[in-house]
Amino acid sequence: MSERTSPPRSQNPHTTDPVTLDDDATLHAMGYPRKLTRRFRAFDNFAISFTIINIISGIFSSFGFGMNAGGPRILIFGWIGVSIMVLFVGAAMGEIASAYPTSGALYFSAGKLAKRHQGAWSWYTGWLNFVGQVGGTAATNFAAATFIQAFITMQWPSYEATPQQTVGITAAILLLQALANTYTVRLVAVVNRISVWWLLIGMVVIVGALTLIPDHHQSPSFALHFVNNTGFTQAIYGGMLGLLVTSWTFTGFDGSFHMSEETVKATVNAPKGIMRAISYSAITGLILMLALVYAIRDYGHAVSAEAPPVQILIDALGQSTAKFLLLIVIGAMLFCGLANMTSNTRQIFAFSRDGAMPGSRWWHSVSARTRTPVKAVWLAAACPLVLVLPGWWSHTAFTAVVSVNVVGLFLAYAVPIFLRLRLNDFQAGPWNLGRYGKPVAAIAVTWILISNVLFMLPQAYPITPASFNYAPIALAVVLIIATVWWFATARQRFQGPVSYGRPDEVAAMDLI
């Protein structure tokens, strides 16, 4: 629903854009007045999920892990297989997004789809989504700070990176992203459009350089090369761990869902944004993955480097070209962190609107000047900073804190899809899967359960404090806190998504 340029509907209904009426009516029917400005078109909605998935950031951050857990065989064919599974998850989520196009997204739809205990389903989904997004923002920006220091070290060899400097750079990045998100949603949309082209052109430049410049590439059969350096003797276990490379990359596509209240024709454009983001990321990511794999020269040298994909660039292209391409990677990570914060802000705004967060009246307020939830933006910046601070003393401590990122997000994805699967009278929106809705949802939930088990299993042997997978502990801590909080006070005051009145009543509350 774009901003109204005509009088309110009660005075002159015939001059109001019908698209505005459709979007308004959908939101009002769900019990909410319009507080956010609709400036996201179909491309903008796609752009935010495509930016958060961010193939350049995801692949460069986790490629080294995949080189040890399965090698080229899993990096390539695992990417293809997991991408297909994620498409099922995206399709199932898209169907729900079409039915409930709100900023609350996952937690809102969980509350509406549950047959009983709507408040509890909504509560746990909302907090899993919140901590997952906060962890994602922290991890992405910490990775960006790490790569920035890698670039500085390449440029000035005397520079010595320290954990304290990494935390400081991360804090500066969070500040800049918060400032960008503070201004109008139009600026956010423009930045996300730029990020799409940055990713696509950057991918073409990196792939082109890796394809055309080196005088040597691996043979076609190298795609079948298998490596298991995880420390576990079972090759199949090492290979299954390698699937996490793709799973780590394909997170955050719920961003399109969270931006529903700022998207025109959200019942169609939000689910399309989810599916397009996953599809385009799958194709472009595979191309980038192939380029990196076939450019490897000395596997042992690259895999033992502090940043294996950067070492691959240096070995294949030389220091100067590698530095230039590293700037593309850093830019992609910064765009990813920005989009992550935008999505997190909208989830905070909606969760607070329903009274589920401490200080809710603060976080769901909207600036009259920018029409953005400014206070929620700064909360979305402060929380990742809190998670990053343990990295000042220990990288292991930081890893333990943010390890709930992917597990929390995928569990939040699974809950509404699982509840839709149980519901026989699901009221589908304009974008739906028809009779394939339930089979697709069943496959999606099954895959999420399998991948979440992998996320929580040991990922290296021998198991030490530094190599221990803290995801189960981090998840347990979140669930324990949410459960204690729920039974202590929340269940008395939070019953799930709140309705502000009848459609005609909430229409009168619209922020024009």
UniProtKB/TrEMBL annotation:
Keywords: Membrane, Transmembrane, Transmembrane helix, Transport. Signal peptide: none annotated. It is found in: Membrane. It comes from the Bacteria. Residues 1-22 are annotated as: Disordered. It is a multi-pass membrane protein. The chain crosses the membrane at residues 42-64, 76-100, 121-148, 168-189, 196-214, 234-253, 274-296, 316-339, 376-393, 399-419, 440-461, 467-488. One of its GO terms (biological process) is amino acid transport. Residues 1-18 have a biased composition (Polar residues). One of its GO terms (molecular function) is transmembrane transporter activity. GO terms for cellular component: membrane. InterPro entries: AA/rel_permease1 (IPR002293), Amino_acid_permease_CS (IPR004840). This is Amino acid transporter. It comes from Streptomyces lydicamycinicus. The lineage of its organism: Bacteria, Bacillati, Actinomycetota, Actinomycetes, Kitasatosporales.
